Amino acid sequence: MKKRRRRERPKPWSQVDNIPPDVTLEILSRLPPKSIMRHRCVSKLWSYLTSLPSFINSFTSRSTSRPPTLMVTLSSESAKYVLFFPTTPKPSSYSPLYSYEITNLDWKDSRSESIHGLILTPVFKIWNPTLRQFLALPHPPAQHSSSRGWSSYLGYDPLECRHKVLCVVSKIYSGQPLILTLGAQESWRIISEGRCPIHRPTGGYGRCVNGILYYRACLLGDDQEIIMSFDVKSENFNIIKLPEGSSQLYMIPYEGRVALVAHDYHVVKLYILKDAHGHEWKSFIFNVPSERVRMESMRFRGTTDAGEFIFAAYRSSEDLCILYCWISLLKPKTNQIIIKL
C-alpha cells in the first residue's frame, strides 16, 4: 500500500503543467520585461503565450499605468547606448534607472520613432528596446533592389493590433509600394495598382498617428512637396497639401493628429492638421520658457506620448541636458532634466 501511494502521489514539478493558460498569462504579465525574456526559454508553451497579441496588449496596458519613462539613445563611433529614466523632475541631477549597450551595431540612425513599442532600423530590422530584441525582416524582392533605392516606414493598426512596414521606391516615381505585416508569416506583397498615387518619398521619418502613417513625398509631374497619408488597416492612400513655407518643418504627432513644428532658439512655430482628409492647418507661435538653459545649444528632438516637446543639447560631454515642454497653446510649462553620463 505504501509503494502504491508513493507511485500515485503526483510529482511536484508536474503541477506546473496543471496551471490553466489564463492563470499562467496573468502571472507572466506581472513580470518585468527582462524576466519575461528569460522565462520565454522555459518551454515552447511559455514562448508561445508571451508572443500572443492579447498578452502583448495586456502588458502594454499595465505599463501605461506606471510612471512614464523617457528613452534616450546615445551613439559613439563604435557603440550605441540606451538609457531609460523617469520624466518626473527631481531637484538635482541623477543617473538613468536602467541602461544597456547595443552590441553588434550595424546601424546608427533609426527609420522611425517608437511605434507602439517597436522601432524600425534602416537595415530592415525591428528593434524592441524594452525587451532588447531585434527581429530581422526579409529584404524586398528584386524590383525594389538597392540600385533603385527605397524608403521604409513602420505603421501600427490599433484596431487589429498589427504592425506593418511600408516600402516605397525613392529614386523613381512609383504607384505600387510593398507592404509587410509583422507576425503574420507573410512575405512582401505589392499593393494593387490604382490604390496608390504615383509618387516618390522625399526623405525624413514617417509618423504614425492613430493608425494613419504620414510621410513626405512628391507627385509625378509636380515638384511641390506634399504629405502622403497611408491608412494602415485599409491600406488606402490620401494626399495632404502642406501649408505655405513649411517644407523644412519637423513632422510630429500631437494630441492625436499630425503636426509640423519649427524651432528657432526660444521661438517655436506649430502647424496642426485639423482634418486628416483635408488640407486645413491651424498655426500657433509660442516661446519656450527657459531660465537656466541656453536654447542656442538645444535642438528639437520630438514629443512624448503625453504631448510634451523634447529639446536636447546638440553635443554632450559629462552631462546631458534634456528640456521637455508641455504646450497648452495658452501657457507653456517646462521641466529640465540633467543626466549624469
TrEMBL record:
Gene3D superfamilies on file: 1.20.1280.50
Organism: Brassica carinata (Ethiopian mustard)
Domain F-box: 19-58
InterPro entries: F-box-assoc_dom_typ3, F-box-assoc_interact_dom, F-box-like_dom_sf, F-box_dom
Protein name: F-box domain-containing protein
Top-level taxon of the source organism: Eukaryota
